[in-house]
Amino acid sequence: MPIDLEKLVIFDLETTGLEADCRIVQIAMTRGDRIYTSLVNPSMPIPPDSTKIHRITDEQVADKPKFPELVDDVLEFIEGSTLSGYNVRKFDIPVLRREVEAAGRQFPPLPVLDLFELNQKMNPRSLSWFYQHYTGEPFDTEEAHDAVYDCIATRKGFMGMFEKHSDLPDDLDELSLFAEPDRIPIGASTWMVWTANQCEPCFARGKYRGWALSDVNRKEPSYLNWLKSIDADVVTKNLIHLYKTNKRQYIELLRYEHPLRLEPRYLEYREAMDRRDQAAYEELVELAKATRNPSLVFLAAAWATQAKKEEARGLAEIYLSLDDPNVNLEKRSNFLRKTLDIGKDTGQATGAGVAE
């Protein structure tokens, strides 16, 4: 099998719970023929309900290292890798990232290959099904929820999947992109989601369903304040607070945490547009033409229109020729057509205007 297993790190965590502030009690990782595993002292009691699941007790971790003592080994092990595991994107990776950053280190922006997501593409089932289906071997339920066993079972199932589905890409970066879903909920309340057609979180509920967070803030800033005041989940509230209070950190979060790894520079260019940064404009136009990313092309066209650039018409026509799955497609198209007087049938522009 041509998959580069030396680049693939499959990992699994056992924790004190499923809360946003839970702590790691066991970490296991495999890379090639190497296995890294350690129990971790979480510096807090392990709830009995969690112990029932992973069978790790306070006594077992009492004399074990705390995560800051392990962080260098962990970062060295995952350096330059594709991070993988079963259903790790929404829980294990955020927990690991938080623990790394709490130890005073930066979590590296690594590609993610979530084998749960890949399996969902092929067969929506559980880890035990995944393992038995692709290996032909029974899954040991007695060993389940031991991090080492789960890692090894996940990797063996993945290798069996690759052998059974010969049409899968054998490049880990391509495979990671193939496995990514089009829509991932943010937080338990599902007020917001990551989508494949937006570079930032979008609303999945309410009157602004489908709108990007920054678009809602421009349209009705008080709506975000209202959402923070109701019983939305902590993750959603923290995301809104970060957007409101620290745009630079918000953009950094999108750059490294957006699970669909889209073009995070959209917001940077949007802010540069407000500053009338000519160098950023030229860079955006070049990138938009090269990638034909609908959101970037639209932003370039809108910026060119606002600045009365002669290329505004050409950029607008490129955008109108693209298939943009964005929910604001009609809003975007109508803005360009009306402002530049582009006919719906002929696609010809007869004038130019200034964007609002």
Give an account of the 3D structure.
This protein has helices at residues 48-54, 58-61, 67-78, 92-102, 115-122, 127-135, 147-164, 172-179, 213-219, 221-229, 234-245, 247-257, 265-275, 278-291, 294-306, 312-321, 329-340; strands spanning 8-15, 24-31, 34-39, 82-85, 112-114, 183-186, 192-195, 202-203. The chain has 356 residues and is α/β, with parallel strands linked by helices. A five-stranded mixed β-sheet has the order 3-2-1-4-5, sandwiched between helices. Helix 9 (213-219) crosses helix 10, helix 10 runs antiparallel to helix 11 (234-245) and helix 15 (294-306) runs antiparallel to helix 16. The N and C termini lie far apart (55 Å).
Short structural description:
The protein is of the alpha/beta class.
Identify the notable features of this structure and list them briefly:
356 residues; alpha/beta; Nucleotidyltransferase, domain 5; 3 domains; five-stranded mixed sheet; three-stranded antiparallel sheet; 8 strands; 49% helix; globular; disordered C terminus
